[in-house]
């Protein structure tokens, strides 16, 4: 039974990644005007970021969902695969973003003189701190747990989880809020990935507030 649930977890991860990347291609290239040369890094990065935030938000919401009567991935191994996948996708997002971090691809982060904008600085700071907390969270549940009891208690606390989700939300908010309320500016007429990701985080916040 546990093997079947673990397989279901892997299939779910593959589905989330496929839908996320597919949506990025649909929005920016099929219905939008982003050239196909940007598929390997820029567009793939957007899909990966959506998949990463979805998996991470779900991973830290499994127990609260269970407390609310919704059973998902009860197998400990399935949860672990979910968390590791979210972390690996986050690392991929960070590396891909680093490769193309310039005003041509991330204009919202820069002023006209090429320096970081205030919105860009706040978004990056929230993203970096959130990324560090994700690594700490993963470290607590990887390998032998001896000596990690206090740290595990901290990272599983309601304050830590809500703080982590809040950082995710801030990273996304400062990155894209100026475009969220302007459907006329949406690529292909479809909602921005940053907005969808923010909704995912907002749902995660609600679940954790209610279920922890």
Automatic annotation (TrEMBL):
Ranges annotated as spanning the membrane: 12-30, 42-60, 81-101, 121-140, 160-177, 189-209
Q: Where is the signal peptide?
A: none
Asked if the keyword Transmembrane belongs to this entry, the reply reads yes
Keywords tagged on the record = Membrane, Transmembrane, Transmembrane helix
Superkingdom assignment: Bacteria
> Has keyword Transmembrane helix?
yes
Q: What is the protein name given in its UniProt record?
A: Sulfoxide reductase heme-binding subunit YedZ
């Amino acid at each position: 039974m546990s093997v079947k649930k673990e397989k279901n977890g892997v299939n779910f991860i593959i589905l989330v990644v496929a839908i996320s990347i597919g949506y990025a291609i649909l929005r920016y290239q099929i219905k939008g005007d982003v050239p196909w040369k940007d598929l390997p890094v820029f567009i793939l990065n957007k899909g990966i970021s959506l998949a990463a935030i979805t998996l991470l938000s779900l991973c830290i919401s499994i127990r609260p969902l269970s407390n609310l009567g919704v059973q998902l991935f009860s197998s400990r191994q399935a949860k672990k695969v979910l968390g590791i996948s979210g972390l690996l996708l986050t690392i991929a997002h960070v590396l891909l973003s680093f490769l193309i971090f310039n005003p041509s691809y991330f204009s919202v982060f820069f002023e006209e003189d090429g320096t970081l904008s205030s919105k860009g600085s706040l978004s990056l700071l929230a993203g970096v701190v959130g990324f560090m907390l994700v690594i700490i969270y993963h470290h607590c549940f990887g390998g032998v747990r001896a000596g990690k009891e206090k740290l595990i208690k901290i990272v599983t606390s309601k304050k830590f989880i809500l703080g982590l989700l809040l950082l995710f939300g801030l990273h996304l908010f400062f990155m894209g809020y100026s475009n969220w309320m302007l459907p006329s500016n949406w690529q292909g007429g479809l909602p921005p990935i940053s907005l969808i990701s923010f909704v995912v985080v907002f749902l995660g916040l609600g679940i954790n507030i209610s279920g922890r």
